């Protein structure tokens, strides 16, 4: 075997083994959690289109709220995995302490804001009048344990930074199993409908957040002292340098989703229900990509901390190849089983048929979506988030929102045109991230 091939094998094989080992728990976590969320959606869907619309109305607002802990998780994972790779235990514990501080402060602020604004959000989303009250009630109840849900996201990132992807998986799956069991109790046994679904979610989210905090404390390398929890200006500055562009990306993205959903909600309850359920059904296709993204970020951060550039490049190439191949296969399965997927979540034949047509359309763009996901993961692991902000903003608002506005508001086109705009956004975004990926000019 030529020497350069032997060297490549020595580098690529351990990277491949590590990536598979770390990604299997995160992929299983995403798959099992999403399957259980499917059960949750199906349970609500059996109550009728109005119930589905009530629960789905505030989904995009929820994404916007969780963009804050999501951005902190990105920054903390990048910094903590790098510190772990460099063997800097003192900095790792300091980062764990700052994560406690950030989770408590941000979670408290977000929870207060959510509870105050809950009655007004459905009105802003432009839903039909009879959906406003149940949607507001659902959002209010699910926001009661928001501080714990925020903590779950932040502490899970810290746990993954030390190459433990199994513990967050166990907690996440347990949380979702609890949610389904409580749904059975509150929705059906007690007959509380949408309110029952909200109570079940509230309790399960709170339980999951508490368990994630206790899990982090159980790890000696992550257990902070009281002095570690005190504000550290230098570390907080590092978190904000990485986290603010990530937050800006998610805020602009989620704001776009809100505007996007608002334009669809005005097309009628059946159309909006079909649209919302189809988006939920599509999740099963791309969740392996998100599982790989978390593992990729961890390995990239560790490679940076070790100063191993060859390992870094090997991780990037293997992650891109694996993710795109998985998404090609999943896209084909989505196309074949589009209608059965929709029929799982709704007993409305019209909504199922409409949604299945959208899923068949989007199935062709899944490889591009996978490429976008993994490129984000690589950049997150490197702590490089500025270019993602630019690419996301340009594509979301310049492609998806602008063209959807023209299609719906100017030309009066239907849901198919809306999904074509969404597909165009995903394709353009993935190409932009590829062109402007960190270090691409040196390759």
Q: If you had to describe this structure to a student in words, what would you say it looks like?
A:
The chain is mainly alpha-helical. The protein has one domain. The chain is 86% helix and 0% strand. Helix 2 runs parallel beside helix 13. The longest helix is centred in the first third of the chain and has 43 residues. The N terminus is likely disordered.
Could you list some keywords that capture this structure?
443 residues; mainly alpha; 19 helices; 86% helix
Tell me the fraction of residues in β-strands, as a range: under 5%
Q: Main β-sheet: number of strands, strand sense, barrel status?
A: none
Q: Count of helical segments?
A: 19
Number of strands: 0
Mean pLDDT score? 86
**Cα radius of gyration in angstroms:** 21 Å
How much helical structure, as a percent, in the residues? Answer: over 70%
| Helix-strand sequence | HHHHHHHHHHHHHHHHHHH
Spans with pLDDT under 50 lasting ≥5 residues? 1-7
Q: Tell me the span between the first and last alpha carbons.
A: 25 Å
Shape: globular
Please, how many domains? Answer: 1
Structural class assignment = mainly alpha
What are the SSEs and their pairings?
Layout: H1 3-45, H2 49-56, H3 59-65, H4 67-86, H5 89-117, H6 121-124, H7 129-142, H8 146-161, H9 166-189, H10 193-217, H11 226-229, H12 233-265, H13 269-306, H14 309-336, H15 338-345, H16 349-363, H17 366-382, H18 386-410, H19 415-435
Helix pairs in contact: 1-9, 1-13, 1-14, 2-7, 2-13, 3-12, 4-5, 4-8, 4-12, 4-13, 5-8, 7-10, 8-10, 9-10, 12-18, 13-14, 13-16, 13-17, 14-16, 14-17, 15-16, 16-19, 17-19, 18-19
